[in-house]
Write a structure and sequence with these properties.
The protein has five helices and nine strands; from the N terminus they run αββαααβββββββα.
Amino acid sequence: MAHLNLAKLREAKVHTEPYMFTLVPGFLSNETLAKINRTYPNIEKGGSYPLDSLEDNMFIKEVIEELDGPQFQQAISEKFNVDLNDRPKMYSLRGYTRAKDGRIHTDSKDKIITVLLYLNVNWNQEGGRLRILKNGHDVDDFVVEVPPDNGTLLVFKRSDNSWHGHHPFEGQRRSLQMNWMTSEGSKGWHRIRHKLSATVKKLTGKA
């Protein structure tokens, strides 16, 4: 069964101001979202949860397999006019947002494309709604605000002005992040991988 609505993705508009991004509400169906949340890992701390810690029965793995496939990559490559062949990919899950998270940033230069897939249901909080920003200092100067819910997909091309952030929120906030990276050997790639490894040790209590 296909879980990604690639037709919606292909039809979605690519915005170019203030930078390249596309937004696809309902990229996952309600049925798929419910299955994901029934077996989602219990993440009670901030930071990212690496995929090698997922258990076999966790439904999110089926969605990740589709994201990892050639059809999704081709759709993103065509939409953003970027060659992603042989580019390494990084995945991470989030389940808990800290009050300090969401500060304005552009993403690191070793990222080419950022994919965010939101896994919450009917987000009613004022904070935690990602904003596509016009600058790097005012979170209220934005072009679109994205509720992190109901299988919404947000994809943007990293640039020196790809500013994004959100008002503070602390609590459960589930999302899957995927990035195509410049190279597997880049300094940033290893730094991120090390950070993810350290995070899962804290989450699982492993030394």
